[in-house]
Amino acid sequence: MTSQHFDLTEEKTSRFVQIREGEAELRIHYNDCGSGAQTVVMLHGSGPGASGWANFSRNIEPLVAAGYRVILLDFPGWSKSDSIVSTGSRSDLNARILKGLVDALDLQQVHLLGNSMGGHSAVAFTLTWPERVGKLVLMGGGTGGASPFVPMPTEGIKLLQGLYREPGIDNLRKMMNIFVYDPSDLTEALFKTRLDNILANREHLENFIKSLSANPKQFPDFSSRLGEIKARTLIVWGRDDRFVPMDTGLRLLAGIAGSQLHVFSNCGHWVQWEHADTFNRLVLDFLSH
């Protein structure tokens, strides 16, 4: 890390904001990095123990170094944000939380970069507040809906839900070993950190299962509305994604007129981590042209 970016640590960039959701007042955590004129908001996935910082640890510094302000939002039910039971659309709930954050920070327009659930949430936000979105980057997510090629729920989603129900190192290994294409990249330190994050807030785990019981389809199918999206969109997918199949990316490409799709071979559900250098160059080129 270069000297001018020594302050890019989770602790030093950690912030909180109060956001009203219905009758509740939620304390929401985010990280605020850099001070560029343009802002990129990164939105994490739904795995147990996920956070913005953990999801995008290999992507923050290159964007800040290129002159962007980078904000990592932790959705309610993850990391240091308050917990919540989602009885409706999780995508739309997260979009409302994102709206509360950008309003609180007085950001009139932001670029959105969403992974998995974060992609679903970015699409939900864009459909509701299109004027607040510059460019859109969707990775391994963007809409729910069945796949004609893969039984649903997918192998990965079954393991994810199993980890929520029975959190422990064995179930974590089972999930992470198909999360990425090459599990030899996964270190014991990564497993320990992720398990610590999972066990740090049992309420998050319990409320995720309660949410699934209340509404098994937390992430709606936006296919019929994708044509409404006018923002230029970069869709990024791992060819070997076993959580959200690649044909979902093709549906996004077909539905969003101003979109392009980049598929990474030898890559699972975590493009931004598995192929970080190439991903960072791709995103920076997309944002700057």
TrEMBL record:
<dbReference type="InterPro" id="IPR000073">
    <property type="entry name" value="AB_hydrolase_1"/>
</dbReference>
<dbReference type="GO" id="GO:0052823">
    <property type="term" value="F:2-hydroxy-6-oxonona-2,4,7-trienedioate hydrolase activity"/>
</dbReference>
<feature type="site" description="Transition state stabilizer">
    <location>
        <position position="116"/>
    </location>
</feature>
<dbReference type="InterPro" id="IPR023791">
    <property type="entry name" value="MhpC_alpha/beta_hydrolase"/>
</dbReference>
<dbReference type="InterPro" id="IPR029058">
    <property type="entry name" value="AB_hydrolase_fold"/>
</dbReference>
<feature type="domain" description="AB hydrolase-1">
    <location>
        <begin position="39"/>
        <end position="276"/>
    </location>
</feature>
<comment type="subunit">
    <text>Homodimer.</text>
</comment>
<dbReference type="GO" id="GO:0005737">
    <property type="term" value="C:cytoplasm"/>
</dbReference>
<keyword id="KW-0058">Aromatic hydrocarbons catabolism</keyword>
<dbReference type="Pfam" id="PF00561">
    <property type="entry name" value="Abhydrolase_1"/>
</dbReference>
<feature type="active site" description="Proton acceptor">
    <location>
        <position position="269"/>
    </location>
</feature>
<dbReference type="GO" id="GO:0018771">
    <property type="term" value="F:2-hydroxy-6-oxonona-2,4-dienedioate hydrolase activity"/>
</dbReference>
<feature type="site" description="Catalytic role in ketonization of the dienol substrate (substrate destabilization)">
    <location>
        <position position="194"/>
    </location>
</feature>
<comment type="function">
    <text>Catalyzes the cleavage of the C5-C6 bond of 2-hydroxy-6-oxononadienedioate and 2-hydroxy-6-oxononatrienedioate, a dienol ring fission product of the bacterial meta-cleavage pathway for degradation of phenylpropionic acid.</text>
</comment>
<dbReference type="GO" id="GO:0042803">
    <property type="term" value="F:protein homodimerization activity"/>
</dbReference>
<protein>
    <recommendedName>
        <fullName>2-hydroxy-6-oxononadienedioate/2-hydroxy-6-oxononatrienedioate hydrolase</fullName>
        <ecNumber>3.7.1.14</ecNumber>
    </recommendedName>
</protein>
<comment type="pathway">
    <text>Aromatic compound metabolism; 3-phenylpropanoate degradation.</text>
</comment>
<dbReference type="GO" id="GO:0019380">
    <property type="term" value="P:3-phenylpropionate catabolic process"/>
</dbReference>
<keyword id="KW-0378">Hydrolase</keyword>
<comment type="similarity">
    <text>Belongs to the AB hydrolase superfamily. MhpC family.</text>
</comment>
